[in-house]
Amino acid sequence: MTVTSELRPDGIRVVTMNAPPVNALTVQGWFDVAAALDEASADMATKVVVLRAEGKGFNAGVDIKEMQNTTGFEALLGANRGCFAAFKAVYECSVPVVAAVNGFCVGGGVGLVGNADIVVASEDAYFGVPEVNQGALGAATHMARLVPQHMMRTLYFTARTIPAKDLVQFGSVLEVVPREDLLDAALKVAGEIAAKNTKVIRAAKEALNGIDPIDVNKSYRWEQGFTFELNLMGVSDELRDDFAGTTKAGGAQ
């Protein structure tokens, strides 16, 4: 199963992504993440969510191979809609979302984490938006919530990555811990939130979203429009074919 959700007795709901080998989610996987967060919102017994992953890394973005092995634009449209739904569900979750990031967090992973409320990371965690390498645009909206504007542009245009420890100075990552301590660190801060009055916390989440200077849903949708243009020009398909060939040969994602 790609996504599981477990509500603990203390009101902490742990949502886990597990899509071997690298947590590159299929179209259905993105919608499954959205469904898990929507379930958390609707369940008054849920006081806070911890979003985490099993395996090598937190998230490697969309499943490029699924996209390239699907005729027409069905997988492309599905991935765009699925990512939009998942990112939106994290942001609009009625309770705070704590992202526990291990290993790589790239592309769509940044979309999830950038829309989370609190981020803790393992010592080996790093973030990146390599969209330009695959002829797509997206997640700049969310990377801009993790790093300052000029750093975001540098990471975006170069497809470089940035280690989690460097994000602590910006305040976007709360703390960096050994990987074996990551879940405990996430549960610790989640436990502090769960101890508060749930009605107050839910009201606080809505209030904080209401004073955000940028509408993340509209901003991300704007980015997606350029992805569609690049696909119509044929640029994206060529780059994705090159990427899929590279990953097949070298095993990297």
UniProtKB/TrEMBL annotation:
Its EC number is 4.2.1.17. InterPro entries: ClpP/crotonase-like_dom_sf, Enoyl-CoA_hydra/iso. GO terms for molecular function: enoyl-CoA hydratase activity. The keyword Lipid metabolism applies. Keywords: Lipid metabolism, Lyase. GO terms for biological process: fatty acid beta-oxidation. The keyword Ligase does not apply. It is an enzyme of class 4 (lyase). PANTHER family: (7AS)-7A-METHYL-1,5-DIOXO-2,3,5,6,7,7A-HEXAHYDRO-1H-INDENE-CARBOXYL-COA HYDROLASE, ENOYL-COA HYDRATASE-RELATED. Belongs to the enoyl-CoA hydratase/isomerase family. This is Enoyl-CoA hydratase echA20. It comes from Nocardioides simplex.
